[in-house]
Write a structure and sequence with these properties.
With 66 residues, the chain is of the alpha+beta class. Helix content is 23%, strand content 18%. The protein is globular, with a radius of gyration of 15 Å.
């Protein structure tokens, strides 16, 4: 199950880490999180974005072939 960790430094800098995501799902959840934070009056912007290698792994499904 994907997890999002949010770290906030003493200076107010925010680091968000996605764990267990594949493809663009992490980016989609990040955008949702930023929208909610902005509703609270926090002006948050992405300064840097780095995809982890596991984000490029395609999840395989099980096919029932008869």
């Amino acid at each position: 199950m994907p997890t999002t960790r949010v770290y906030i430094s003493k200076s107010g800098k925010i680091l968000i880490e996605g764990i267990g995501y594949s493809g663009n799902a992490c980016i989609e959840d990040l955008q949702k999180l930023l929208e909610e934070v902005k509703k609270l009056g926090v002006n948050a912007e992405i300064e840097m974005h780095r995809r982890k290698p596991e984000a490029n792994v395609v999840q395989e499904g099980i096919q029932n072939v008869q």
